Amino acid sequence: MLSDKNIVLFNMAYIEIRFIEPSEEACDILIAMLSDLQYEGFEEEQNILKAFIPKSLFNEEQLKELAGQFQLKYSVTELHDTNWNKVWESNFQPVIVENFCAIRAGFHEPVKDVMYEIIITPKMSFGTGHHATTYMMIQQMENIDFKGKLVMDFGTGTGVLAILADKLGAASVIAIDNDNWSIENAAENFKNNNAQNIDLKLADQPIANGICDIILANITRNVIQGNCPLFNKYLDDKGILLLSGLLSEDEEHIVLLASTYNFVLNKQLQRDNWISLKLIKNTAIDSLSIND
User: Are 184 and 208 in contact (CB under 8 A)?
Assistant: First the structure.
């Protein structure tokens, strides 16, 4: 998604979908599936899930099919032209992950008593820290040694995880996304956080100049399972593959699939119905505790 340079999402037509009375579990699954269909924002209210997509990307046949799977009623509304950056800014609140890391916008006051603070422009790229998946990735990163490591952040979004890896002492980070807006937004955030060891790439699959020690992938189940061979290719022995963007019911499938590519589950976190999985290349298991 686009960055600074006085470019904003203004006069851009959006469609708002309201799903009526979805269950909590249905909400989690819908958000994951709609994200794959290029929906860009979600808002949960009592008995309502709102989903937003640019009018140019809206496909009502896809929507009917998806709603039918969950037997949900829905309404479709075309929104008046809106400055979406201002909307996001007005709704963006700092995210604090215990005393480890805080994520805030430049217009917020500094957050006290945290080890690391990340400042981002709260535009429409994924990864502000509010979502359970980003929150858990940050929690997992607290217990990983990044010093001097080569890191890949696949699906970087706003660049939050790449920035944190840089702050934690990574020797270099390659940050990858397939969305032009995310690339420009991440570049702006890297500059604002003085992150000088990050190489930003526009790509739709993992790429690296060498073998990585750590791969971060907060994306979706379909993208994760499609890229397991490349995660294996680019990750060193004893390397760490840290995943999220997964629902709790995805765990068994992903762990089994990952095992065919030399990965073994090391640690799992769950927040709401979302999970984060820390996996280790099989040859590292002898030197690491499975339950650390």
Answer: no
Per-residue pLDDT of the chain (292 residues; tens, 9 = 90+): 222 222 334 446 788 899 999 887 788 788 888 888 888 777 777 788 888 888 889 999 999 999 999 999 999 998 766 666 666 666 677 889 999 999 998 888 899 999 999 998 855 545 566 778 999 999 999 999 999 999 999 999 889 999 999 999 999 999 999 888 789 889 999 999 999 899 999 999 999 888 999 999 999 888 999 999 999 999 999 999 999 999 999 999 999 999 999 999 999 999 988 999 999 988 645 444 444 4
CATH, range 144-287: 3.40.50.150
Residues of the chain with CATH 3.40.50.150: 144-287
Question: Judging by DSSP bridges, how do beta strands 14-20 and 74-78 pair with one another?
Answer: antiparallel
pTM of the model: 0.75
CA gap 16, 29 in Å, rounded? 18
Domain 14-87 fold is: Alpha-Beta Plaits (3.30.70)
